[in-house]
Amino acid sequence: MNRSVEFMPHFVRASSSRRPALAGFSHGAGYGLPLGGALPVPPSAPAPISLLTWLAVAAVLAMLVVLWWRHAWLAARRCARLMAELGRERAHRAQAERALRDTQTSLSHLAAERGSTREAERRRIGRDIHDDLGQHLLALQLDIGSLHNNGQLPAGLREQTAHIEHHIHLTIRSLRTVINDLRPAALDGGLGHAAQRQLDDIARLSGLRCELRTAGLDSQPARAAENALFRLLQEALSNVVRHARASAVEVTLVREACGFRLAVCDDGIGLAAGGGGRGMGLTGMADRVAAAGGRMTLDSRPGQGTAISITLPDEPGPRESPQPAAVAEYCA
User: Fold this and answer.
1) Per-residue confidence of the chain (332 residues) as pLDDT tens digits?
2) 294 and 312 in contact (C-beta within 8 Å)?
3) Which of 312, 113, 291 has the alpha carbon at shortest distance from 229?
4) The model scores a pTM over 0.85
5) How big is the chain by its Cα radius of gyration, in Å?
6) Could you tell me how far CA 296 lies from the centroid of its own chain?
7) Which stretches of 27-50 are DSSP H helices?
8) Domains, the chain, with CATH or none
9) Strands 248-255 and 209-215, how do they pair?
């Protein structure tokens, strides 16, 4: 009995001596546990996605697909409508261009017919003047000459008849000039022959050194395009004589595959800057060239002369607007 009593205190003392170690154990010392002895809570597993969430996601995706498809469908319709409108506009434009070309061709043919009619009327007037008025003047000249050579005529009347005969002679020369301007007889021998005679007359009357270069021209009677080209040559040479103050002029006449080319170059004073002193000479030439379906270009600088280049087709083509530089006049 006494042993038991003695034993119990010893046990109690032993337990008391080990209490600090247990206390440390209780706080996790020696086992890698956090202080306080609380065990770490393991991470919870993700909660499973519910069916409603899947349905919501599917609904959103379906709505996005529907919206994208609707946008694509509207864009396709808009593109189709724009393409249809573009096609109609192109068709209208092509139709308008065809109508414009047809109108230009008709105007060119009308201008060519008008030029042919004018040339025919010139020939008729020239022929009538030559056959009628020319014959009367010639008869009057012969009668006055016969009267002047009459030995019984008094000296005072003889002097008057000499003056009358001289005036009749000048009238016949002027009449021939008018007839030649209405219908140059040289054109019956071809454009080259007519141009050479024109340059010879200019050189004789004005003292200009004239040079003519031709290529591809024949001696057949001039056609409508060659008639127009000869009129343009006359007007260009007239401008040179009146305005250019030139000492030499060079003319080139060439028959090409697509028509005719005329170039008139002088060494005169040229054109003033901005086309000063503008008159009707080059404006009329530009109108005549445009009516014939050709093209006219003008190259000139003050003090460096002027070069005019004209191209005319064999047949009238679409009417072209005159070039801005082609409506200037020689400066004075």
Assistant:
1) 444 444 444 444 444 444 444 444 444 444 454 555 555 555 655 656 788 888 888 899 999 999 999 999 999 999 999 999 999 999 999 999 999 999 988 887 887 787 778 777 877 888 788 778 888 888 888 888 888 888 787 877 888 888 888 888 888 887 877 777 776 766 777 888 888 988 998 888 888 999 999 988 876 766 777 888 888 998 899 889 888 889 999 999 998 888 899 999 999 998 875 554 445 578 888 888 887 888 999 998 888 899 999 999 876 544 444 443 343 433 33
2) yes
3) 312
4) no
5) 55
6) 13
7) none
8) 189-327 (3.30.565.10)
9) parallel
Tell me which residue of 291, 221, 211 sits closest to 249, measured CA to CA. Answer: 211
Residue whose structure tokens are 């414009």: 100
Tokens 């697509």: give the residue: 258
CB 209 within 8 A of CB 170: no
Distance between CA 195 and CA 229 in Å, rounded?
Answer: 10
Instruction: Give the whole-angstrom CA distance, residue 120 versus residue 159.
Output: 43
Task: Compute how many other C-beta atoms are within 10 angstroms of the C-beta atom of residue 264.
Answer: 21
Helix (H, G, I), strand (E, B) or coil at 273: coil
Beta-carbon neighbour count of residue 290 at 10 Å? 20
